[in-house]
Amino acid sequence: MKKTAIFAALLLGLLVALGGAPAATAQEDLDTILARAAAKSYLNTLVRPELAGVQKFYVTDGLRADNLHAELGDVTGYTVTRADWLVPGQTFEVQAALQPGERALTVHTGKYNNRWKVDGVELTTPAAEAGQPSTTIVETGLRPVSGNGSGLLAFQTRSGGDIYVINADGTGLRRVTHGIDPQLSPDGTQIAFTRWNPQFELFTINTDGSNERSWFSNRKQMKSPAWSADGSKLVFSFQNGGRLEPEFHRYSKETLIKRAAKGSPVNIPDNARGIEFKDGKLQFVIPADAYWWLAEINLTNQTYRDLSTGSRYNYAPSGHPIDPNAFIFRTDKGMGLYDDAAQTSRSVSFDDRDRGAISISPDGSRAAFTYFQDGNWEIHTINMDGTNRQRLTKTPLSVVAGRTAANNRAFTNAEGFTTMSRAQGESMPNVRWNNAAPVWSPDGSQIAFVTDRTGRWEIWIMNADGSNQRPMFPNGALDNIELNFDGVDERMLSWR
Q1: Are residues 20 and 156 in the same domain?
Q2: What are residue 251's DSSP bridge partners?
Q3: What is the predicted pLDDT for the residue at 269?
Q4: Are 332 and 313 in contact (CB under 8 A)?
Q5: Helix (H, G, I), strand (E, B), or coil: what is residue 52?
Q6: Residue 279 vs residues 129, 269, 273, 282: alpha-carbon distances, Å
Q7: Residue 357 sits in the same domain as residue 227
Q8: Are 176 and 324 contained in the same domain?
Q9: Could you count the other beta carbons within 10 Å of the beta carbon of residue 373?
């Protein structure tokens, strides 16, 4: 699309959004008008396919909505049913009924580098809003699977999607609710999770779908709620501060010379990307640098407390199964273990490619986690003292070679030899399996995880040493359920 066409489409979307909004009252400030306009511009891109190419203009880089857009299909129209501040001055919410089907879509907008963008979207069905029971039994009569051990597995279909529970033997599958990063309580009777719509909120619910309860709703983008070993506390991460959008810098030669002469030369940060001279100018991009923190809710007296980890980058906490004061979490430099009694933390690893969600073995001796390796996700384990790191998953070389060959094109060169090549500038698809989001079995002998090795995301299981990797539910219990792992430190599984 040419630049003029893109600009025209963006302008059209903004005018339609503003024109379709309720008349601004004297009490409405500019932020209210622009926040609502951003949400409605996004809604317009759903209705008008010709605007799909400029949809990224209205959304944040971190918004993952591909699965939702696929689920929506064709949208012929929408009606705004509610538009108001969720968090005054920070988060504006627009609710709309989509046609066909009267599906309810909630859109959140936030301010990023002085521009309002969509940073949260959630689709709900009319049945759910009508107050029907949240628990849905979705299978009966399946044969139990042997060799999986015991206990109950909770899982999410995607971050913010449906949350299910299923027995480890593949029976008793049922939908419980929807939300983000489910974790079973130590006694296996409740699930903690968060939602970002209609507001950022922390919940618990019984595994039978009853007694959904909100505990807290005053922190942005709450994720990864983690139970303490005694079930008395929930620790979670939330976003607050930092740089939420990438920054583009460009300096002319004259500017560089003037600044150097004044003793304040242009400083290129170590994490800058895309550093180059183009058209006689120096340019580079500084990535987004959002700050994430940990907080704790005491379920006994319902008090809130920020945790002092000594870092501005705290993700994916998970409770220690034995020590009620200990929580492991991901930092920007690896993994850390927080002692809630002493309010201090120590390092477990020092590799920034160590990712959540992290799971500690039932005896408290080892941690299993997702590792970003060679452009894909793999599963590693490590002792809690940082020793004996082991890699448990790996794509066989034969698979890598076969996929590489399949994604190349054969041609005959001048000497008559047949070789493999790709067009200049054409990217190579990932040829390795992804294996992620590990969780230990209740007895510590096995690890469940998600993998896309068959071409779709599935729940698999392996021995704690990485041997005997196999589908966890070959009885077909999850055949009609689509999973998706986005690699944003989400907790896909919990096993008690």
Answers
A1: no
A2: 282
A3: 82
A4: yes
A5: helix
A6: 55, 22, 18, 9
A7: yes
A8: yes
A9: 16
